[in-house]
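_Per-residue structure_
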Amino acid sequence: MTKIKAPESPLPSPAANRGPLDWLGFAGLVLCWGGSFAGIKLAVGDFGPYWLAAARLGIATALMIGFALVAGIRLPRGSREWGQLTAVGLLGTAAPFILIGWATQHVPSGIAGLMMAFNPILVLMASIILLPEEKVTPLRLTGFLLGFAGVSLVIIAREPIPLDALGGGLAPFIALLLGSAGYAANAIGGRMVRTIPPMTRVFGILIVATIATTIAAALIAPLPGPIGWPALFGALYLGSFSTFLAYLILFWLVARTSAGFVAQSNYLVPATAIVLGAIMLGERLHPLQYVGFLVILGGVAIAENIFRRRKIIPPPPA
């Protein structure tokens, strides 16, 4: 007797209606990552960029182990699953953490923010080949480009890009672009390994990335000296919220929506960081930044086509 294999459930269309839970997850992701700038600022001085990457991933992995034991989440099985998640973990997490950690020491933070905003556009471009179900429509492309324009307004109004920004050479810019491409690989790869449960994806990726960044930090940088309480608090925040919780939301959301939808959170992350700074530190916002916020929100709304009319199906005749 031949076994009948159950068909895989179809991937949700990027044009599907987003429910309240999807938008709540999207907002949670933006908040988790928006606070990471403050956490990095607190911790990087004592840890250094490379050991900070290893520390935040180590904290996230420790929390994931505890969560997996309580929730019954399994480890990846077999060479195929481990191979897929090793590729995503190295390209989508370990490499961007190391590349961006190095590059941000050599370029203004405004340029780093702009380079990271390329992530959704890179996801959109990669989707044409790797995720054909996520169709790139003119409306969707317009929304993504508007989102990038909004981020540019928000960042440049806060920190004008100096004319001599290229004085340090092209290497930091290439590293930032590769880091942004790595984060795009996270969304694309997380979408493609659909046979692996989302929480198992997180488990495997965190383990691989923690090992890789720890080895890289040991080879590149000396061990950090004494760690102050502010730096420790920053690392704990980065590990628990910006990495552990953010990855749980990220891969859950990628599995139920689309890589393009999740990638658009990168437009709102720098804007959220600036708003949090204004609230907590009393910083004043430039009028152009308010315009940028509206442009970003408009771009997301257009890309997700939330203004379309829904078809009303009339009730059957009595």
